[in-house]
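User: hey, got a sec? need Enoyl reductase (ER) domain-containing protein folded
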Amino acid sequence: MTTQSGIIVEAPHELFKVSSGIARPTPSGREVLVKTLTVGLNPVEPFQQHTGVLVDEWPAVLGSDFAGVVVDVGPDCSKLRPGDYVHGCASIGRNKYTPFQETFLADETTVLRKVSGLNAASAATVGSGLLTAALCLLAGTGLKLPKAGSKSPEKDEWIVVLGGSGTVGQFAVQIAHQCGYKVLASSSLSKTYLPAKNGATATFNNRAPIDEQVAAIKERTGGGKFARIFDTTAQGYELMLQALEGASTLDTKKYLASVDDWSDFNTPAAFHEYRAELGQLGRLQSPLGVEVTTAIASWIPDFEAHLEAGSLVPLEYDLAPGAGWEQVIASLGDLESGKSAKKIVVKIRDQ
Ligand SMILES: NC(=O)c1ccc[n+]([C@@H]2O[C@H](COP(=O)([O-])OP(=O)(O)OC[C@H]3O[C@@H](n4cnc5c(N)ncnc54)[C@H](OP(=O)(O)O)[C@@H]3O)[C@@H](O)[C@H]2O)c1
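Assistant: Yep! Here you go:
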């Protein structure tokens, strides 16, 4: 067995630690072997470490967002070749497919080919945010992305994004904006520039009491001209309900979408509910895994074209001061302590 270095977690609640004894996988079918160049950190990694949820095997190798270079391809690959630069979100919780190791497997149909002009750090900010926002807005609320480089004509209708300053939220703002909606986004007061930079027309304070947030939503959407609300924070279900019930005045089908796929919801039948389950990406043994993976594969060419055209853009990030696995572990601590206001990315190697 060829081994490689990376980060393992021995069992739920155990610490992250560097190991040089991780098995190096071999690609089959349409899989490519990707050498990890940069990783983007997400709340799901500490969540998996602490709870063991969404982890298939122990010791576990974690990681989600990555930028890397293809070093080997399976026999059926037709899109990617060795030397191609790619980025995206891994099939999380499955050791062969996760980027906290020197090389890992990815399906060539669900990774993004890196476009010219994106560096590895920027590229590592894109995967989970873009794909989760797309699941909620394209699959969940029926939006259609326009052709790359163009923007749909502006509608007299708003979409409300709770958490427009976060990784998922910033891509949600971009997608809704490109689809021609006016976007009202919440954030903490110090971060309103982030949703604004991504295309939001207006913002409101995500820490105000819930009745004040409902009132702000009604007032800033021209008296309630919205039928779609997306909670990217996993803290906004009650607010979504109250906003649709008490502030939305459009006489049309109403949608709520959420990144919260673990809490009990009791959504009235009048509202269409959608919950993202990006963790199903690549899990082709389950019908939901097939649905999520197929949808994402169908959007990848459009996303690549939008990133090339600049009509979807990567996020602002904080690049960790050092490089390598020890730095990833230190930066996961920074993520948990809320030290960074932006997406944290860590370089593993240059090439
Ligand atoms: N189900 C899925 O498929 C899926 C996929 C990806 C992510 N997620 C989950 O989605 C959530 C967001 O992920 P992310 O990567 O976008 O995280 P992130 O970048 O840390 O963003 C978190 C967002 O939540 C807001 N927020 C934090 N505390 C809040 C509070 N008390 N009240 C209101 N808003 C608050 C933040 O706003 P400010 O910083 O401006 O206050 C920010 O906009 C996480 O729980 C993650 O695990 C789920």
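Quick note: The chain has nine helices and 15 strands. Let me know if you need anything else on Enoyl reductase (ER) domain-containing protein.
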